[in-house]
Write a structure and sequence with these properties.
The chain is built from 23 helices and 20 strands. The protein has about 675 residues and is α/β, with parallel strands linked by helices. α8 crosses α9, α19 crosses α21 and α19 runs parallel beside α22. Bound molecules: adenosine-5'-triphosphate.
Length: about 675
């Protein structure tokens, strides 16, 4: 079964070359019981580790079931350790955070998926625990067991995958002589049931059980003693059967059970060190919190703006009279330009085929009065098309007509707030109100449009509800003669939202011509405002994003630091897992899962912080915030990516640990 030819194992320490094993030629038959003896430092453990595929020889050939083990990769060697070999160590090497049951079942985590069903696994574990006399202690932790009991658990674990070979390194070394004898009786029973048994020992009493005793000296075979039949009878029945042959090559995919177990280990780790975990994820918490708050504020602002744009209409635009610029060149042009006038509106109506409605607007803030009620109103002098170009609708009565304009009638259409302020529950249509000192008849009431103060300031939208609309021709009575030419705005509605840009280009070039290039007007396009506000938003996002980025970076480094410490702390555990069949990839995965769990915990706390922060911002600063589902997804994604980035290095450090060095780590 096993054939070693000219095996050599040398270690390099600086310039020093230590040869732990030299020219070892050895055949071990199936079902044999071999003891390895020799003085301290003679290479016994090194030979056992080579036999157990925990280490590779630096020279020679190792044939296991005919296959040359020295050519196999890490995954293949791990699979051999998992399936063909069971280890029993002097220091027991149980996983401290797991129960007896979980310790015995641990090798299943690293086995190919089709080896056993969960119920078979449970059955096997329970039968083995009973076989070694520990069925009452299945839920206990290793720390709650005696040395002898721990070694029994280790033996049950070594047998769980039904390996053909059991390798024991001074299995009774840490036990008193009576317990040691019980353990040896257990091992002898295994041998009698057909297992190949190789035991490293100092004690001739233990070696006496073996069929052959290999004596090592200075790394070489000194002699091999062959014995008669072993003197001790098997004491206890062993429930399992030696496993059948398996293919040596091929890798094992991590199974669901493995992932679930690793997740449990990770969660246990987080819960065990609550404060440490919390402190290490603080950076992630603040980073994710900042991202959530940033996205919530951005989404809130955008939603608010979109609502305003919907109020204004996506196919409307406004030309506003702008204060004249002071640059000398501009001033020349400005002197020739008449500013924004009624004539501009007439000319623009002709130049752009896309314009559906166009209305000049004169703005006046005047007091209005109905009987004993007074209120300040935005009085607007305009023309009939304003109903369309101002995106308005009526709740009662009618809008201004062409004859109102032609006759400069004293009629008005009022907004809903004005209606409430002056008329409360009465019907205003037909009633007379006083604007400054002139009487006007109310002919219509505009539909209410939801406005709040903040919306007005961000887009400078006038509150429709506070308007009193009168004919443009009538409005001149409130204006001194020298200013009657000028108007403040032209409200335009384009036939289709898709034509807004084309119309804007035509309007600009026409106005530039009419105004001799003077920039005494401003074209306000609601759709463009969205673009502009997104630019402002971008600056805000850069600031918040930088805060989030720095927090995540610091948080990530914090987590990496903790994970590096954890890896060092758990070096021994890594060695144990490697011995029972974990490949490098699986160790890598385990520590990545642990880091991910930690960062996701940070992510969840960060989400809570972000949501709470957004709520506070809305409550105190009155900014609208919106937390969308994708915001939460982004936050989870960010914390997971941070975990992956910063967890990869500690995890690869863990995976790179040499199994022997890890097992020997104190
Ligand atoms: N990682 C290593 N680096 C350098 N030298 C090593 C290493 N591991 C083992 N050695 C050396 O190899 C030799 C054999 O060591 P090994 O542990 O196999 O001896 P042993 O017979 O099992 O001893 P003991 O009975 O004390 O456990 C020793 O001289 C030891 O110092």
């Amino acid at each position: 079964m096993i054939s070693l030819r000219h095996i050599e194992r040398a270690y390099r320490k600086g310039t020093l070359n230590i040869t732990a094993l030299r020219d070892i030629d050895l055949e071990i038959a199936d079902g044999e019981f071999l003891a390895i003896m020799g003085p301290s430092g003679s290479g016994k453990s090194t030979l056992l580790h080579l036999l157990g595929c925990l280490d590779r020889p630096t020279g020679g050939e190792y044939l296991l079931d005919g296959a040359d083990v020295t050519t196999l990769n890490d995954a293949e060697l791990s699979r051999i350790r998992n399936q063909k070999i069971g280890f029993v160590f002097q220091a027991f090497n149980l996983l401290p955070q797991h129960s007896v049951e979980e310790n015995i079942a641990a090798p299943f985590l690293y086995a190919p998926s089709n080896t056993f069903t969960p119920s078979q696994t449970k059955q096997t574990v329970h039968a083995l625990a009973e076989g070694v006399g520990l069925h009452q202690r299945l839920l206990h932790r290793p720390t709650e067991l005696s040395g002898g009991e721990m070694q029994r658990v280790a033996i049950a674990r070594a047998l769980v995958m039904r390996p053909r070979m059991i390798l024991a390194d001074e299995p009774t070394g840490n036990l008193d002589s009576r317990t040691g004898e019980e353990i040896m009786a257990l091992l002898a029973a295994l041998h009698q049931q057909g297992h190949t048994l190789v035991v490293v020992t100092h004690e001739p009493r233990i070696a006496a059980f073996a069929q052959r005793v290999l004596h090592l000296k200075d790394g070489a075979i000194e002699r091999i003693e062959t014995r008669e039949t072993p003197p001790l009878d098997a004491a206890e029945p062993y429930p399992g059967q030696p496993c059948s042959d398996m293919a040596v090559r091929g890798t094992v995919q991590p199974r669901l059970a493995f992932l679930a177990s690793m997740l449990r280990v990770a969660t246990q780790g987080v819960l065990l060190h609550k404060l440490r975990s919390l402190l290490s994820v603080l950076g992630i918490v603040f980073g994710v919190g900042a991202i959530i708050a940033m996205l919530a504020i951005g989404a809130g602002a955008k939603q608010e703006l979109l609502e305003q744009i919907a109020l204004l209409g996506t196919n409307t635009m406004t030309i506003k009279a702008a204060p004249q610029l002071e640059a000398p060149l501009e001033r020349g042009a400005a002197q020739r330009s008449e500013g924004l006038t009624e004539g501009d509106a007439d000319r623009l109506a002709q130049v752009s085929p896309f314009i559906q409605a166009i209305a000049p607007v004169r703005l006046l803030a005047l007091p209005t009065q109905y009987q004993q009620q007074f209120t300040q109103a935005d009085v607007i002098g305009t023309t009939t098309p304003y109903l369309q170009s101002g995106n308005l609708s009526l709740q009662s009565g009618r809008f201004l007509t062409d004859s109102d304009l032609a006759e400069a009638s004293r009629v008005c259409v009022i907004g809903d707030d004005i209606r409430q302020a002056l008329f409360a529950f009465r019907n205003p249509v037909g009633e007379l109100i006083k604007i400054r000192n002139e009487w006007f008849q109310v002919v219509g009431v505009l539909s209410n449009k939801q406005f709040n103060l903040k919306k007005q300031t961000s887009l400078q939208v006038r509150n429709v509800n506070r308007q009193v609309i009168i004919p443009l021709s009538t409005a001149v009575m409130f204006i001194p003669p020298q200013e009657r030419q000028r108007i403040q705005e032209i409200a335009i509605r384009v036939d289709d939202a898709r034509n807004v840009d084309a119309a804007a280009r035509l309007i600009r070039s026409a106005l530039n011509r009419i105004h001799y290039g003077a920039q005494d007007y401003e074209l306000v396009i609601p759709r463009e405002l969205l673009r502009q506000s997104q630019q402002t938003q971008r600056v805000f996002n850069i600031v918040m994003g930088s805060i989030a980025g720095i927090s995540l970076l610091v948080g990530g480094i914090g987590i990496m630091n903790i994970m590096l410490a954890t890896v060092t702390e758990r070096t021994r555990e890594i060695g144990i897992r490697r011995a029972i069949g974990a490949s490098q990839r699986m160790i890598l995965l385990q520590f990545l899962i642990e880091t991910l769990t930690l960062t996701l915990v940070g992510g969840v706390l960060g989400i809570a912080l972000g949501v709470g922060g957004a709520w506070l911002i809305t409550a105190f600063a009155r900014w609208r915030t919106v937390i969308a589902f994708d915001t939460i997804l982004i936050a989870c994604g960010v914390s997971a990516v941070t975990g992956l980035i910063f967890g990869l290095y500690p995890a690869s450090q863990a995976a790179r640990k040499h199994p022997i060095a890890a097992l020997r780590y104190e």
